[in-house]
Amino acid sequence: MARWPAPGRCKSRLARSLGIERAAAIQDRLGNHVVRTALQTQTVLSSSGEVATTAPGLDVLVASSGLGPRASRRWVASLGISRVVPQGEGSLGLRLQRQVVRALRERAPAVVLIGSDLPQLSAADLIEALDQLHRAPLVLGPARDGGYWLIGLRQSSPQLFAGIDWGGDRVLTQTLTVAKSLQLDTALLAERADLDRPEDLRPWR
Predict the structure, then answer these.
(1) Contact 113, 100 (CB under 8 A)
(2) Which domains are assigned to the chain?
(3) Are strands 2-3 and 62-65 parallel, antiparallel or unpaired?
(4) 165: left (phi over 0), alpha (psi -120 to 50) or beta
(5) Is residue 158 classed as helix, strand or coil in its secondary structure?
(6) What are phi and psi of 195, to 5 degrees?
């Protein structure tokens, strides 16, 4: 899930302190990092240099917002991705659910959604999410701000995206409450920090 890194059209909270040009440059750097990391999940090397695990058949794509279809294709091609789909309109929950439904309709056995503001993201994180999806129907990556940085599903569960206070500090708690009501076993990954505010830049160099 990524927004086009154009000045004045992304990272509004960063832009208020850093200016629209610098905020867009940060968004561009983050997007490149996340895409490269997602592509690396197809082959993850151990410290000895040998292949430790692989994810064959993994389809990596960008769900874009902020520009039209033709420009979106040019943008993601520059990132090394061959496929882009629109996020569409509506709340974050609606846009997330739309991507889950699309992937499952295409007969994907599971879908993992991540944002484009994750400087700590590693290929091992994504491999772990895929591994956990073999054991649990729902995987969540807790974010330090109370949300989640990843959601993985084996089935469509629109209730997970309804009635959530998106952007607040109770997103993860609310989602876990809904999952419990649906009797969905949930696997939790390591906590990670999103990069949304100027103070989030301190540990990132």
Answers:
(1) yes
(2) 2-201 (3.90.550.10)
(3) parallel
(4) beta
(5) helix
(6) -115, 100
Question: Residue 11: left (phi > 0), alpha (psi -120 to 50), or beta?
Answer: left
Reduce the DSSP state of residue 168 to 3 states and report it: coil
Contact present, 171 and 122 (Cβ < 8 Å)? no
Structure tokens at 96: 């997330």
d(CA 29, CA 9): 15
What is the per-residue DSSP string for 120-138?
T--HHHHHHHHHHTTT-SE
Torsions phi, psi of 11, nearest 5? Answer: 45, 55
List the chain pLDDT tens, one digit each, 205 residues. 988 876 656 666 666 777 788 878 888 888 888 989 998 887 654 444 444 454 557 888 999 887 788 888 888 888 888 889 999 999 999 999 999 999 999 999 999 999 888 988 999 999 999 999 999 999 999 999 899 999 999 999 999 999 999 989 999 999 999 999 999 999 999 999 876 665 666 655 5
- Determine the Cα–Cα distance for residues 162 and 170; give it in Å rounded to an integer: 13
H runs (alpha helix) in 41-119:
69-78, 92-105
Helix axes 123-132, 20-40, angle to 10 degrees: 60
